[in-house]
Amino acid sequence: MYAYDEIDRAIVHERVDEFRDQVRRRLNGELTEDEFKPLRLMNGVYLQLHAYMFRVAIPYGTLSSEQLRKLAHVARKYDRGYGHFTTRQNIQFNWIALADLPDALAELAEVGIHAMQTSGNCTRNVTADQWAGVAPGEIEDPRVWAEILRQHTALHPEFSFLPRKFKFAITASDHDRAAIKIHDIGLKLVRNDAGETGFEVLVGGGLGRSPFIGRTIKSFVKGHDILSYIEAILRVYNQYGRRDNIYKARIKILVHELGIEKFAAEVEQAWSEIADGPLTLDDEMIEDIRSRFIYPAYDKLPAEPDELRAAAGDARFEAWRGNSVAPHRLDGYAIVTLSLKPAGGPPGDATAEQMDAVADLADKYSFGEIRVGHEQNLVLPHVAKRDLPALWAALDKLGLATPNVGLVSDIIACPGLDYCSLANARSIPIAQELSRRFANPETAALIGRLHINISGCINACGHHHVGHIGILGVEKNGEEFYQITIGGRADEGAELGVLIGPAVPYGEVADVIEDIVEAYLSLRQRPDELFVDAVKRLGVEPFKERVYATR
């Protein structure tokens, strides 16, 4: 956990006071909605279909138990008793009254939580691998660099009014759990031939109306130079980005239209003007940030404790352990993912009671720390293996031990037309129906790793473009239809899915997905050939034929 200093705390509280005055002026008529809009957006407040939606930042996906309890309190006191964890390691509240928002924000500020820049044409929440700092084989904890980046970009006067929103993601592992290739800037910690630690820098990724996979602009930037290099990228974007057309305003369009070579040349020119200047990070500054991350006082524990051997005969425990428990960098510990995808439940939702209980379990079993992943699940990153049976029993009672992590019912979905004013179609009911149809653990195990992503509109908050199976809601003559893509992926081999054919009506979506899965099971070469690999080998046609043969 990162320990914020007095400056951080002062900024957060000053922002609350500022927003309280803005809300007061809006409520008494001094500000019109048009005047209030840019102010509320910079504080994470959207006007949705039924109410204001409040988006709270969880920087690089790390929460303390105290902070999670405060989120539960806000859900209970100001909302309808639950929150929605998003693909950007944020949490959203959908029903808070405008008049209550300053009080909710003030309570969150007590524990160092804010909503700054969770919306607006600015740099957004910096996201990271949810296993950061505990993943085996990781070069180093990328959250140190995410925090450096957060501090530099937060309320940055030059980058608070960009042509369009701007998103960062960072990882330090070969396997990309942070989806860095679908971000405006993706950073991967690497070592060069001399053994120096630095970054591979990718630019121009992003989904939405015009999806692109990010491309490497520079294979190695020294850690000391990363701020100045990112500053150069943002300056080029700020200068040349399309402010005249919202659909062409993202950096991905600029990179695409200029070409990566021309864009890189512009960045190099901008960087030459600021490299080796005040933005150069010295060792003392880096170590100061690193020293503020408080790591657990781990015990030296056996890799195979007696408690695990005693629980080995419990089939339900073993199914959960095989699915939701991953290796930790220390042999006696494990990383545990808590599925927020129960059969029939809205993906990513957690009740106030569940959040309180997870906070208690984090204190008991994970040194008081929780992580949020972009897959809309929670993680306990520091669990002693001896505690796994007891933790599983507690999670099972809470409905948080569904052993479906990474499987067909572990669905990513945006709120869709049930909440969002931009949506064309519902997402949540589709996800609920699919999770019920694939709820059988034996069926899910037979299918293997398969990611379904659902978006209710072209803005792609559900990341449908990079789902193994992607579902996009569209409107046709006032009715809900859905386009289906297959073959997408968001990891280190990121690719965009391919459309299989015409959109299908709401009532047929679940049947279509079942048809695709059945086609995969009959076409795969061997039981361990993943769906996404089978699509890459076979192409779209065999799946298209199965889906549309009787339609």
Task: Describe the SSE topology.
Elements: H1 6-27, H2 33-41, E1 45-47, E2 52-57, E3 62-64, H3 65-78, E4 82-85, E5 90-93, H4 101-109, E6 127-128, H5 143-153, E7 168-171, E8 185-191, E9 197-203, E10 215-222, H6 226-240, H7 251-258, H8 260-272, H9 283-291, H10 306-311, H11 315-324, E11 325-327, E12 333-338, E13 349-351, H12 352-365, E14 369-372, E15 378-384, H13 388-398, E16 412-413, H14 428-437, H15 441-447, E17 452-455, E18 469-476, E19 479-486, E20 498-499, E21 504-505, H16 509-523, H17 531-538, H18 541-548
Parallel strand pairs: 6-7, 7-8, 16-17, 17-18
Antiparallel strand pairs: 1-2, 2-5, 3-14, 4-5, 4-13, 8-9, 9-10, 11-12, 12-15, 14-15, 18-19, 19-20, 19-21
Helix pairs in contact: 1-2, 1-4, 3-4, 3-12, 6-8, 7-8, 12-13, 14-16, 16-18
How much of the sequence is in beta strands? 15-25%
In which range does the helix fraction lie? 25-40%
Which structural class matches the secondary elements? alpha+beta
Q: Compute the number of strand runs.
A: 21
Quote the average pLDDT. 97
Total helical segments: 18
Span of the ends, CA to CA: 53 Å
In the predicted model, the low-confidence regions spanning at least 5 consecutive residues are none
The main sheet comes to: 6 strands, mixed
Estimate the global geometry from the Cα principal axes. globular
Rg, rounded, reads 23 Å
